[in-house]
Amino acid sequence: TLKRVGMAVPENVISPAGVLARGEFTENYIQQFIYAVQVSDIQNNTDTSWLIEGREYPSELKKQLKEARRDFERTLFYGAGVAAATTAASFMNGFPAYITQHATALAGAILTETDFLEEGQECWSDVGPDEMPRTVISAIFLKQVFSSWVDGMRRLDATTTKVTAKVDAIENDLGLFEFTPNFHCPPTDVFILNTKNYIIHPYKGLD
User: Fold this and answer.
1) 5 with 199: CB under 8 angstroms?
2) How big, in percent rounded to 5, are the helix, strand and coil portions of the chain?
3) For a Cys staple, 176 with which of 8, 120, 155, 171, CB 3.0–4.6 Å?
4) Contact, 104 vs 115, CB < 8 A?
């Protein structure tokens, strides 16, 4: 079970509030992400390109934030853990590297609500209701499979010409499960995560 994953903590830098002091327990390599924007005052106040949205600094900052979001997301799926060395920073593992418990291969069978609930029962028994994962990540087809589980609850009449077949969350006795499709997710895999175990630790000026 994945317990704690941190990001953006520089190598060999003491945090003003250390990891253990904050009650976190790191079980992954910590990875540093650095982004910078630098423009002159003249450049910032001169709109010379149709690519710039208003002033240049806010426009470039917006682009950097999009890059950061993309990098974080890709790292969570594809990250390959590397331990830090004297001259090299560490790189974190993606969460698939830690999904070794409560993993069930259906061997081509259709994913049913019973399969989902059985895995949820094992997680509930193993870590308890407070730490149980409830964010479900999958490819878009499996997201539609999840939505089909409530078809029996829907009622249509002969005049209905439009129906919503989209379900983003299901609440049962195990808790509220939120279903999130992601195009990085393999089409045959479903991951259920406790997202509070993922931590971004920003540093102003890298301390």
Assistant:
1) yes
2) 30, 15, 55
3) 171
4) yes
**Bridging pattern class, strands 175-181 and 135-138:** parallel
How far apart CA 164 and CA 155 sit, in angstroms, is 12
Predicted confidence at residue 52, as pLDDT, reads 63
Residue 51 amino acid letter: L
Q: Do the Cβ atoms of 26 and 4 come closer than 8 Å?
A: yes
The pTM score is 0.67
Mean pLDDT by 10 residues, the chain (207 residues): 42 48 59 79 65 70 86 86 79 78 73 85 85 88 88 78 84 91 86 80 61
What's the token pair of residue 64?
């950097």
* CB proximity list for 129: less than 8 A, separation 6 or greater: 174, 175
Q: What is the pLDDT of residue 169?
A: 92
* Bridge partner list, 90: none
CA atoms within 13 A on the CB side of 169: 8
pLDDT at 26: 60
CA pair distance 103, 189, nearest whole angstrom: 10
